[in-house]
Specification:
Helix content: 55-70%
Strand order of the largest sheet: 1-2
Structural class: alpha+beta
Number of strands: 2
Length: about 70
């Protein structure tokens, strides 16, 4: 049970997923590393990346590579 609690502490609050994802990309982390480091499911991270792309905050420039627009 302690293991689960520890992983939950490292994750952002649900309402802050987009901001958290944006900040991590801006810091130079790739989505695969964000997923591993913060124990975030890849499907959740993909959804957040799609949300950021739709709002024109990021642009995909290659496999696992994003450019910060705003």
């Amino acid at each position: 049970m302690k293991e689960v609690r520890k992983n939950i502490k490292n994750q952002p609050a649900k309402k802050n997923w987009d901001l958290f994802t944006y900040q991590q990309l801006k810091a130079g982390l790739r989505p695969s590393l964000i997923s591993k480091k913060f124990n975030i499911p890849k499907q959740t991270l993909d959804y957040r990346l799609s949300s950021l792309k739709q709002r024109n905050l990021i642009k995909k420039v290659g496999y696992g590579t994003y450019e910060i627009i705003a």
